[in-house]
Design goal:
Blueprint lengths: L1 E2 L5 E4 L3 E5 L6 E5 L15 E4 L1 E7 L2 E14 L2 E11 L4 E12 L2 E11 L4 E11 L3 E11 L4 E4 L3 E5 L2 E5 L1 E5 L4 E11 L3 E11 L4 E13 L11 E13 L4 E15 L5 E16 L3 E13 L4 E12 L46 E3 L24 H5 L4 E2 L10 E2 L14 E7 L3 E4 L2 E4 L2 E7 L2 E17 L4 E15 L2 E8 L2 E8 L5 E9 L1 E7 L2 E8 L3 E5 L24 H4 L3 H8 L16 H7 L2 H4 L13
Antiparallel strand pairs: 1-6, 2-3, 3-4, 4-5, 5-7, 6-7, 7-8, 8-9, 9-10, 10-11, 11-12, 12-13, 12-14, 13-16, 14-15, 15-17, 16-17, 17-18, 18-19, 19-20, 20-21, 21-22, 22-23, 23-24, 24-28, 24-29, 25-38, 26-27, 28-31, 29-30, 30-32, 31-32, 32-33, 33-34, 33-35, 34-37, 35-36, 36-39, 37-38
């Protein structure tokens, strides 16, 4: 029986009393629960309004139909629709036609909503859209828990927060906490970043995302010399990532890999940097970038490969103020070290070996015949070297002394180096700790700690601190040239090794060749300071300064086998390669895939109900059960 508007009618229904007003006023249904369902607080009471209603039985169940401007209010929850079914025995409503749920700032819209007033839960499907005025969550289906202000989306959910778009197969959103937890093929996009993961927790207020599973992050332009330069791309891989956009910080754990690539005008990758470690921390600022890698670190660049327990990489993109407490001083320039003064006396010479010492003010060319000394030569520019700082690399707040002789600046790992006004940009510095080993073409360098400095993407200087050792393979003689000392400095010109400088307590093992390129002999030389000069990657001259002692092996047969200095190691099989670091199929697939078009700032990619339904599973796209959804109105 349908009750029209304009009549007064009282109807006892067992669990409540219905009142239909007169004079064109809407129908009012005020529920009064009986003792069986009443609670101490009365939180399950509901106020129902509609233009008209009818009551009857359907499948043995008492049902009320509400027509036109349906309004239901329960505490702070309000529901509106064009039509509703009320199941009296189940304390449920089924709303259809422009359904809206209002709950303390939340607005949920859908084509159909089933609401249980006893547990205060609404289940919505078809064109579901939740918003609090700033964030929008869209999905084909949702379950809304009004008391918790929690929404569960079982399939194809999309969250839009300003310029950030988050998509997943399923997820949950807490409106008051402003937190989302999404699972299954999760993607997050903003104008600069794309993220893929198996699961993700998103904190809106902090713009923070914690992703797990096979995590992949791609940034375009953020590591370029200028923000407008989109030729720079940075990729992050790992099993767990904490990405904080406000702090401009990312933490990657487990199978962590960073790939930085610059693309030239033809689309060819160049200036590629690969860094792998158990943990990576990346910081971004307007003028610099910082990367901290810890545990089993592997680094590869075109002209450099390295392994270490930990590393700190700084990249300065622009000059900054030099007179503020928040900005460190520039990286000190090279200066000549002091050389201890100690005179020696000549020693005896045998048929196959010769030992000589020279005064400290004379420089000996170890490749010249015995007994001949070269005239005084100007000392090459060198720098003292940063200490090992092994634990400081792992703790970004620890202080690492990078003071060089003749300079007074110190640098904390929490602050990047600042470029001087005359520095070529970008300025890059890599610090390696705990038994690091580096490779430069045919050279291998190791020590307690290593610092590599580059300017304008070209290696400039390498500083090795304590127990420094350098070895280079002579491809003509198939022998390993060696140099060691307490500290060592390598100078490069056009990315090619130009000079090696070891001091103090320097030792060198040199293999000599004839004019035809055959093995002639060898020399073992020690001194306060030894300098090796290179041409086309080959040692052309060895100079020794202070306390010189040398042993010459005049014939190949007189050379000890092997002729190795203490601490020698030659491990080319440990050298990281690009192919090795990029070997996993998932990494190759990600790098080969072209980046998706980035949304412009302030624009949101269109998300329509059709697109959401199309992405849903077939079982999700099916219509609701016709036994509970009215197909027609009486």
């Amino acid at each position: 029986m349908r009750i029209p508007v304009g009549r007064t009618f009282w109807w006892g229904v067992g669990v409540g009393v219905l009142l239909v007003a007169v004079g064109g006023m809407p129908a009012l249904a005020q529920e009064r629960p009986d003792a069986a369902v009443d609670s101490a607080e009365g939180n399950d009471r509901a106020l129902v309004n509609a233009d008209s209603l009818s009551a009857h039985e359907r499948n043995g169940e008492r049902v009320q139909e509400l027509f036109g401007n349906v309004r239901v209010r329960q505490d702070t929850t309000r529901l509106e629709s064009n039509y509703a079914l009320r199941y009296l025995n189940r304390d449920e409503f089924l709303f259809t036609g422009d359904v809206v749920i209002y709950e303390r700032g939340d607005t949920l819209r859908a084509d159909t909503v089933r609401y249980n007033k006893r547990i205060k839960v609404g289940r919505a499907w078809s064109n579901v859209r939740l918003t609090d005025g700033t964030v929008v969550v869209q999905a084909p289906r949702a379950t809304y828990y009004t008391e918790e202000k929690r929404s569960a989306f079982p399939d194809s959910v999309t969250l839009i927060d300003s310029t950030r778009v988050l998509r997943a197969q399923s997820g949950t959103y807490w409106s008051e906490a402003r937190r989302a937890e999404f699972q299954g093929h999760v993607t997050l996009d903003d104008p600069e970043t794309h993220l893929d993961a198996d699961s993700l927790t998103y904190y809106r207020d902090q713009e923070r995302s914690i992703a797990a599973g096979e995590v992949f992050i791609r940034r375009v332009g953020t590591d370029a010399d200028t923000p407008q330069d989109t030729t720079a791309r940075t990729y992050l891989f790992g099993r767990w990532v904490d990405n904080q956009e406000q702090a401009r910080y990312s933490l990657v754990r487990r199978r962590a890999l960073l790939v930085r690539v610059r693309i030239d005008s033809t689309g060819t990758p160049r200036d590629t940097l690969l860094v792998r470690g158990r943990r990576l921390e990346a910081y971004r600022a307007d003028t610099h970038r910082r990367l901290i890698a810890v545990d089993s670190v592997r680094i590869w660049e075109r002209d450099l490969a390295a392994v270490a327990d930990s590393a700190v990489y700084d990249r300065v993109l622009a000059t900054g103020p030099l007179d503020t407490l928040g900005t460190p001083r520039p990286i000190p320039g090279p200066s000549a070290p002091s050389v201890p003064s100690s005179a020696g006396s000549p020693s005896r010479t045998t048929t196959d070996t010769t030992r000589r010492s020279a005064p400290p003010d004379r420089v000996r060319d170890a490749s010249s015949p015995p007994g001949r000394t070269a005239p005084n030569a100007p000392r090459p520019d060198t720098s003292a070297h940063s200490p090992s700082g092994a634990q400081a690399a792992a703790d970004s707040t620890a202080e690492v002394d990078t003071t060089q002789r003749g300079a007074t600046s110190t640098q904390r790992t929490g602050q990047p180096p600042t470029a001087r006004a005359d520095s070529a940009l970008p300025l890059e510095e890599t610090r390696l700790f705990r038994a690091p080993v580096t490779w430069f073409k045919r050279s291998q360098v190791w020590g307690d700690s290593i610092r590599v400095r580059a300017a304008d993407r070209r290696i400039d200087t390498v500083f090795v601190r304590r127990r420094a050792f350098a070895a280079q393979r002579d491809s003509v003689l198939d022998r390993i040239q060696q140099l060691k000392g307490k500290h060592l400095t390598a100078h490069f010109v056009d990315n090619a090794l130009h000079r090696l400088d070891a001091s103090p307590n320097a030792l060198a093992a040199r293999f000599l060749k004839t004019g035809k390129g055959t093995l002639k002999g060898a020399a073992r030389v020690s001194g306060d300071r030894i300098v090796l000069r290179f041409r086309d990657g080959t040692v052309r001259r060895t100079s020794v300064l202070g306390g010189v002692e040398s042993t010459y092996y005049r014939t190949p047969g007189a050379i000890p086998d092997p002729l190795h200095l203490d601490g020698f190691q030659w491990t080319p099989d440990r050298r990281p390669t690009k192919e090795q670091l990029l070997r996993p199929a998932r990494i190759q697939e990600r790098l080969a895939a072209p980046p998706a078009p980035r949304p412009l700032a302030g624009q949101i990619p269109p998300v329509t109900a059709d697109s959401l339904r199309e992405r849903a599973a077939p079982s999700i796209r099916s219509t609701p059960d016709t036994s509970t959804t009215p197909s027609s109105r009486p």
